[in-house]
């Protein structure tokens, strides 16, 4: 799928504070079949749920980065009015996890600069990292990604949601990206339940004011999609 270019006029037309959410998704060959189909359906449901919520609709901006034997921005940061739903993703290749995270962070930094240049406020960004295996890309890129993420978390400039898919997900690697809370493993293919929970969490944040302490997440809702 070609990269989607989003015009920056939206930042002028809609000056509401933004909640930037970067979805960094494993689309390696092991995700082929039901997992990739359910992932695509869950992401599209996420867009639909954001679209229906009055507060989240104006605030949420979402980008999608996929990683397999390469990396690609499927969807640049955009609000739901401009973002396009995913028709499908081809699962193929290896798991270049570090490279994917670094691309997601680069894309986020570019968007944050646009916010600053246009005077648009934004909430602490979110990074959703989902994978069903262990990384087999560049070890140096993986270490750089871990260092970048943990520094941003320590500086209170990022919230991460590390999610393992299936029994082969390397939870120890995901834990390296999350120094303040353990990664979670998805119950089966409960992508729809996860993204429904995520959309409600975005809505809750968008009802607060930028600079406030982030609202507490719905921990009880985790039981609907996570192995606890």
UniProtKB/TrEMBL annotation:
Pfam families: VWA (PF00092). Transmembrane segments: none annotated. InterPro entries: ITIH, Tellurite-R_TerY, VWF_A, vWFA_dom_sf. Residues 20-205 form the VWFA domain. PROSITE patterns: VWFA (PS50234). It comes from the Bacteria. PANTHER family: INTER-ALPHA-TRYPSIN INHIBITOR HEAVY CHAIN FAMILY MEMBER, INTER-ALPHA-TRYPSIN INHIBITOR HEAVY CHAIN H4-LIKE PROTEIN. This is VWA domain-containing protein.
């Amino acid at each position: 799928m070609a990269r989607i270019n989003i015009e920056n006029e939206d930042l002028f037309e809609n000056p509401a504070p933004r909640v930037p959410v970067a979805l960094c998704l494993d689309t390696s060959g092991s995700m082929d079949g039901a997992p990739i189909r359910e992932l695509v359906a869950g992401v599209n449901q996420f867009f639909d749920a954001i679209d229906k919520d009055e507060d989240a609709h104006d605030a949420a901006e979402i980008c999608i980065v996929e990683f397999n034997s390469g990396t690609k921005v499927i969807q640049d940061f955009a609000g739901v009015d401009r973002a396009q739903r995913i028709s499908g993703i081809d699962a193929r290749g290896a798991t270049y996890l570090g490279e994917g995270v670094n691309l997601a962070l680069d894309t986020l930094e570019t968007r944050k600069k646009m916010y600053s240049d246009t005077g648009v406020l934004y909430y602490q960004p979110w990074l959703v990292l989902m994978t069903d295996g262990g990384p087999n890309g560049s070890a140096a890129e993986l270490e750089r990604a871990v260092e970048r993420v943990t520094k941003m978390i320590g500086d209170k400039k990022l919230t991460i949601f590390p999610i393992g898919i299936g029994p082969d997900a390397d939870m120890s690697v995901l834990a390296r990206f999350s120094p303040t809370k353990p990664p979670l493993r998805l119950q089966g293919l409960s992508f729809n339940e996860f993204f429904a929970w995520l959309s409600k969490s975005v809505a809750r944040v968008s009802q607060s004011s930028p600079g406030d302490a982030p609202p507490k997440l719905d921990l009880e809702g985790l039981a609907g999609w996570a192995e606890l």
